[in-house]
Write a structure and sequence with these properties.
Blueprint: H1 5-20, H2 25-44, E1 46-47, H3 53-60, H4 78-89, H5 94-113, H6 119-128, H7 140-159, H8 162-173, H9 185-194, H10 199-215, H11 217-231, H12 247-250, H13 253-269, H14 273-276, H15 279-297, H16 303-313, H17 316-325, H18 329-359, E2 372-373
Antiparallel strand pairs: 1-2
Helix pairs in contact: 1-2, 1-6, 2-5, 2-6, 4-5, 5-7, 6-17, 7-8, 10-13, 10-15, 13-15, 15-16, 15-17, 17-18
Length: 378
């Protein structure tokens, strides 16, 4: 069942290791490009991999483009709708998946390069951390928004380019309306840059809020679910009340606790003199911390909680590389191997659960199995 994923994991791990310790930048970039190519291949040319793949495939296979403007399809945002329209017009349903995959991966790649970190590490994290590349096979529109948002947010963080950032939010919104959560970047960066409090104290203060919310999580879920079931229909969002019926079990409650553990662990690294002075690492850590809080608060929405949080949790592709690069020599190798072990173990466990649930009839469709490519459908 792992004929594709195991070689992919080994390929990304080995190439990242070789690239990170290459003697010159040219050799490092060579390994980086192979990783990037591997990501594009496994994503762009997949067939029927991902929960939502059949729904998008059916739309892209339609002979009548007007289907995109009827019923529930009206909710599809402009950019994905244009891609679906192109697929229908050219009578090739695979165009939608190829272009959307390229959009996600290239925006992410270009965004990472702006932060002046080892891009191979970032590609490694995005490829193998279970919340990123593989889930993008299902939540296509949202990951198009997340990757574009990540790219344009970098201009705001690094250059304070508000116009480009607002334009980026608009572009992301045209991929998925949940991108509006990026508006909170404005007050977050204002607090980080203007409030006179030590970095470590600000992080601890927010972390205590997260821990408190985690402790009262069950009460929070129950109360918010009741409130939201009454409010959503009043504001024209009755469609989304379906998610409340699934509760936290569908939302992957395990990710709430895992991300909380990562938040607590980052406190240890913030004591590293090199990292605490690194503005990008600090901002990324705060983003991740607030993303985890958003995940807790939106737990009543099932999967919607983690999906909204991903706009900020995506900054793990900056955090982990920064941690690795804060060390040198043997320590750097050990830290890389420990982080790799953590990420790969999580991914294998996620893949195992997906297969196990499908094989035992718990889920109707496997999210990742069997892996097929459009080149070998027979």
């Amino acid at each position: 069942m792992m004929q594709v994923y195991i070689p992919f994991i080994l390929n990304v791990f080995i190439l990242t290791f070789l690239g990170s310790f290459a003697e010159n930048r040219k050799n490092s970039r060579f390994f980086e490009y192979i990783i990037l190519f591997s990501m594009i291949i496994i994503s762009a040319f997949r067939y029927n991999v991902g929960y939502d793949y059949p729904a998008y495939f059916d739309l892209a296979s339609s002979t009548d483009p007007s289907i995109l403007f009827t019923g529930a399809n009206e909710r599809i945002e402009l950019i994905p709708k244009v891609l679906l329209y192109i697929s229908i017009t050219l009578e090739n349903p695979y165009i939608f998946f190829i272009i959307s995959s390229l959009w996600i991966i290239i925006f992410l790649y270009k965004g990472v390069k702006k932060y002046n970190i080892n891009t191979s590490y970032s590609l490694f994290v995005f490829s193998l951390f279970p919340l990123f590349l593989l889930p993008s096979f299902s939540t296509i529109r949202q990951f198009m928004a997340i990757s574009a948002g990540f790219y344009f947010t970098s201009d705001f963080i690094l250059k304070n380019n508000k116009i480009k950032f607002v334009s980026g939010i608009l572009l992301s919104f045209l991929c998925h309306r949940s991108a509006l959560i990026l508006i909170f970047v404005f007050p977050i960066l204002f607090i980080i840059n203007k409030v006179r409090i030590s970095r470590i104290n600000l992080y601890i203060s927010i972390l205590l809020v997260e821990v408190f919310l985690l402790i009262i999580n069950e009460i929070l879920v129950l109360r918010l679910s009741i409130i939201l079931k009454n409010i959503l229909p009043l504001v024209g969002l009755s469609y989304y009340t379906y998610a409340l019926n699934f509760g936290a079990t569908l939302g992957g409650q395990k990710w709430v606790y895992l991300n909380a553990m990562i938040s607590i662990s980052l406190l240890f690294f913030l004591k590293n003199r090199r990292l605490i002075r690194d503005n990008i690492f600090y901002i990324s850590s705060i983003f991740f911390l607030l993303g985890t809080i958003a995940e807790i608060l939106f737990t009543p929405f099932g999967h919607s909680g983690i999906r909204l949080a991903l706009y900020y949790i995506i900054y793990l592709v900056v955090i982990f590389p920064k941690i690795i690069e804060s060390y040198s020599g043997t320590k750097k190798v050990i830290v890389f191997l420990l982080i790799s072990y953590f990420i790969i173990t999580l991914l294998l466990y996620t893949l195992y659960l997906d297969w196990s649930n499908y094989a035992n009839g718990i889920t109707v469709k496997s999210q990742y199995f069997p892996y097929k490519t459009i080149f070998f459908l027979q």
